[in-house]
Specification:
Function: Catalyzes the transfer of a formyl group from 10-formyltetrahydrofolate to 5-phospho-ribosyl-glycinamide (GAR), producing 5-phospho-ribosyl-N-formylglycinamide (FGAR) and tetrahydrofolate.
CATH superfamily of the largest domain: Formyl transferase, N-terminal domain
CATH topology of the largest domain: Rossmann fold
Pathway: Purine metabolism; IMP biosynthesis via de novo pathway; N(2)-formyl-N(1)-(5-phospho-D-ribosyl)glycinamide from N(1)-(5-phospho-D-ribosyl)glycinamide (10-formyl THF route): step 1/1
Organism: Niveispirillum lacus
Bound molecules: 5-O-phosphono-beta-D-ribofuranosylamine
GO cellular component, one term: cytosol
Largest sheet: 7 strands, mixed
Mean pLDDT: 98
Structural class: alpha/beta
CATH class of the largest domain: Alpha Beta
Pfam families: Formyl_trans_N
Oligomer: single chain
Shape: globular
Length: about 200
């Protein structure tokens, strides 16, 4: 499966996918990285791995529809079969989400459906939850919703700060995202309505 990865910043999850794909037995490869910001550090990660990159800035387009149409065209031209949001900080329109229905996934730093949106680690600490984590899910129009493919949980300690908790979750993100992509690429994920059925024996 050829992956298109959309980023806005650091790109550590992109790096995890690049690293996973460096194993010749991994069933997916990163074909194209698109950023909405020219200074996204993740672009350098892609370039270092010899992966095609594209910067598409929303302000260079007449409107959101035109910006997203350019993304879809570029992804199609690159032969992308699965689009991975990896710290892409813009909400996608219903048209884009429909165009990539069940071929568009996201990683979110909480155990959804808890804590959609921003500042998840501070909110988890504030709520006093014992367990926090990350979720890889198919994208639906409403932000941070959609069929869940993989989750990983971490404990929350009394002394945790948003930063310490974020680091613990990020370590799991870097395993969960490549795992979710592998499960999809191996045909082990089917979507039935609002849920994904995942054949996860052995993972
Ligand atoms: C990650 O925590 C991801 O879950 C969230 O945004 C962050 C992106 O980090 N959606 P990176 O750019 O992959 O390092």
């Amino acid at each position: 499966v050829r992956l298109g990865v959309l980023i806005s910043g650091r790109g550590s999850n992109l790096q995890a996918l690049i690293d996973a794909a460096s194993d010749p037995t991994y069933p997916a490869e990163v074909a194209l990285v698109i950023s909405n910001k020219a200074d996204a550090a993740g672009l350098e990660r892609a370039r270092a791995a010899g992966i095609a990159t594209l910067v598409l800035k929303p302000k260079d387009f007449a409107n959101k529809a035109a910006h997203e149409a350019a993304m879809t065209t570029a992804l199609q031209e690159a032969g992308v079969g699965l689009v991975c949001l990896a710290g892409y900080m813009r909400l996608l329109s219903p048209v884009f989400v429909a165009a990539w229905h069940n071929r568009l996934i996201n990683i979110h730093p909480s155990l959804l459906p808890s804590f959609p949106g921003l500042d998840t680690h501070a909110r988890a600490i504030e709520a006093g939850v014992w367990l926090h984590g990350c979720t890889v899910h198919y994208v639906r129009v409403e932000m941070d919703t959609g069929p869940i493919i993989v989750q990983a949980a971490v404990p929350v300690g009394d002394d945790d700060t948003p930063d310490s908790l974020s680091a613990r979750v990020l370590e799991q993100e870097h395993k969960a995202y490549p795992l979710a992509v592998r499960l999809i690429a191996e045909g082990r994920v089917t979507v039935e309505g609002d849920r994904a059925l995942v054949k996860r024996a052995g993972v």
